[in-house]
Amino acid sequence: MYLITVLVLLGTGLTVNSEIHSLKYIYTAFSEPVGLPGIHEFTAMGQMDGRMIDYYDSDIQRKVHKQEWMKERLPADYWEKGTQSRQSKQQWFKVNIDILKKRMKQNDTDLHVLQWIHGCEGETRPDGTLKFVRGVDMYNYDGRDFLSFNDTDSVWVAATDVAVPTKRKWDDVQVLKEYTKGYLENECIDWLDKFMTYGEKHLKAASPPHVHMLAKKTRIETNLMLSCLATGFYPKDIILNIRRNGRILTKEDGLISSGVRPNEDDTFQRRDSVEILKSDIASFTCQVIHRASDEPIVKVWGKNLSYFSLQFGAKMQTVR
Ligand SMILES: *[C@@H]1O[C@H](CO)[C@@H](O)[C@H](O)[C@H]1NC(C)=O
Ligand SMILES: *[C@@H]1O[C@H](CO)[C@@H](O)[C@H](O)[C@H]1NC(C)=O
Asked: Cα angle vertex 43, ends 42, 49, to 5°?
């Protein structure tokens, strides 16, 4: 048996001079407590490039960081003000769900949900600054579009007849439209720019995993314990998959995972193992995806090499 390293070349251009980034806030309110674990009457979360950066719910009643760099870079005052703002939004949603329920002649038997999504997308310019691309500010009720802000024309657009009274009312409030447009085009972009700078520094401090595939004897003569060890990585989020002939192995296949464990140097490790038959001629791979590594890292354990060139369509490098 031998061990080789496969470099999987993804069809993604790694050198792009302009990138699109986004900052989005999602507020979700139910008409009453849902009574299900993990589902709160009111939830708010911030997302940068689809990754959660902050969080609030009606049970914790506090805006908290979801990324280490947010905690490191933003003062206590930011979280204080954020908490107050979320708490007043929670009240605002309560009042407005009631208004909508009445307007739609809905009684208290059914659960209703009001959601607000707002945020912006920006594009990095060659000089490193961020240019506004588009903004979104929209409400939906019971899963259907309700009202949205047209940033180009500075006008509220009703997606349904029931939203028309709100549209008329809000269109008459000039300061609301100015504020919304200004928020989406400037304030939101400024925050996104700031968060990108904060997060980038953190990314640079990130450390990619070293991946090893190892086999050990087991108590059973005919078997081997095959392990994939990823170690030395930071931050702790990692995807690690052991595959047999391309199929991802799970608990049902006897896969055991250590979970992510801390090393002594503030990095992390994770080891997944599976017991296999020595006589098994299938090919085993371990694929590790971590954000400090530009490409997925794939280690191969097995005999059937040609299979992998087909499976991954990748260049291979033999490392002895
Ligand atoms: C409440 O509304 C639902 C759906 O419109 C209806 O089926 C139900 O009978 C109503 N309940 C009461 C108590 O009015
Ligand atoms: C909203 O914005 C788009 C451009 O994104 C425009 O084509 C459209 O006419 C605008 N106005 C309204 C009232 O929807």
From this structure: 160
User: Does residue 11 surpass a pLDDT of 90?
Assistant: no
Residues near 154 by Cβ (< 8 Å), separated by ≥ 6? 177, 178, 180, 181
Q: Classify strands 239-244 and 64-65 as parallel, antiparallel or unpaired.
A: unpaired
- Band of the pLDDT at 18, cuts 50, 70, 90? low
Give the mean model confidence (pLDDT) for residues 32-52. Answer: 90
CA of 105 to the centre of ligand 1 (A): 10
CA-angle at 82, arms to 96 and 196, nearest 5°: 115
Closest ligand relative to 167 C-alpha: 2
Rounded to two decimals, the pTM is: 0.64
CA 288 to CA 296: how far, in whole Å?
Answer: 6
Pocket flag, ligand 2, residue 152 (CB < 6 Å): yes
Q: Longest Cα pair distance anywhere in the chain, in angstroms? A: 81
**Per-domain residue ranges for the chain?**
3-204, 210-301
* Ligand nearest, relative to CA of residue 153: 2
| Fold of the 210-301 domain | Immunoglobulin-like (2.60.40)
Superfamily of domain 3-204: MHC class I-like antigen recognition-like (3.30.500.10)
Q: What is residue 63's DSSP assignment?
A: -
Average pLDDT over residues 143-161: 96
Which residue's alpha carbon is at the smallest distance from atom 9 of ligand 2? 153
